[in-house]
Design a protein that fits this description.
This protein has 14 helices and 17 strands. The protein binds ligand C6P.
Amino acid sequence: MVLTTTKIETIRKQFPILNQELNGKPLVYFDNAATSQKPLSVIKAIEDYYKTINSNVHRGVHQLSQLATDAFEESREVCREFVNAKSIKEINFTKGTTESINLVAYSFGRKFVSKGDEIIISEMEHHSNIVPWQILCEEREAVLKIAPINSKGELDMEAFENLISAKTKLVSIVFISNSLGTINPAKRIIELAHNVGAKVMLDAAQAAPHQKLDVQDLDCDFLSLSAHKMFGPTGMGLLYGKEEILEEMLPYQAGGEMIKEVSFEKTTYNELPFKFEAGTPNISGAIALKASIDFINEIGWDFIEQQEKALLDYGTERLTEIEGLKIIGTADNKASVISFLLGDAHPFDVGVLLDNMGIAIRTGHHCCQPLMNVLGIEGTCRASFAVYNTKEEIDRLYEGLLRAQKMLM
Ligand code: C6P
């Protein structure tokens, strides 16, 4: 597939950070699954907010506060469109995926999960989608069940179906694995869970930057994403939840904003989505999240998907040429993430050598220690691509790996 060079060049110009040398070499940034870089429009949105309308939201009668509130709420509407939720009541701003999952574990879990109930996750989950459920299950005397993966790093759907039963209260599953790149069959998983009356939480931290999300089509009950992985700011994200379920849930944190009336005798809670947004929120973060979604919409999903597929195919082809290199995660349906091992070399050593050549990859367990245990390895090297990456950069990685191989073996 031919990559549209001019469009990529135009996109890259929006990311000044990419245009620099590190360790005396032009930077190749392949750590996008950890966090993506930010375009000028996102950086400007933060700067403009502080320069022109900085003020607290939903509180002031004064004009600045109203301008800040309008911009903040405009972002919520853009987020609603981005995931295709029915109502802005279903869009709760959070710090990111980790907080979103914790919110559901705390608030849904403590209301609806009781002794003997079961929660299903999978072997490929990030720690954020393991530990909150462990804590909940321990507290509620519920049972955490783990759906296995096959040798390609795909969810074993037969085993998954066998785990689902009338006891299943919730399935919490990653949409796209950060370590393996596997794209899970979310719609099928949701259908199976709903057949037994279980709810489904989708961890879309890695899906949101790579493909169009549609919560109504998926029919998921909850979905989380992190702005910083989709060209937006850190410390910002959202939890989508079906309105009728969120209405039933108790607040996650308590304080300002989430209340309607407070007296020493009794407090009533604010309406959705404010019920789950205690305290002063990340106002500039929300405004910058809107800018990042605008940026994605401007490029368009067709182009993003086509470019990332081209990078994945080319990267897989080139890396496979390297003798002794093993790709970890070879799912048929895969996002632009390549985890690999270079012979017996420790991933950390490979990462440091590549860094010396100006190439940034992530190494280690990628916050998926249980997955690494299942695979019988300590960790991997991971190159994760974004729409602004190029074939030439993949060639740099290829050459860098050949040099690293010579040094380490
Ligand atoms: N994965 C990575 O390098 P936060 O930190 O809340 O924005 O996202 C947590 C998270 C949850 N689920 C998945 C699938 C993720 O990939 C991540 C973050 C980064 O892979 C940092 S560990």
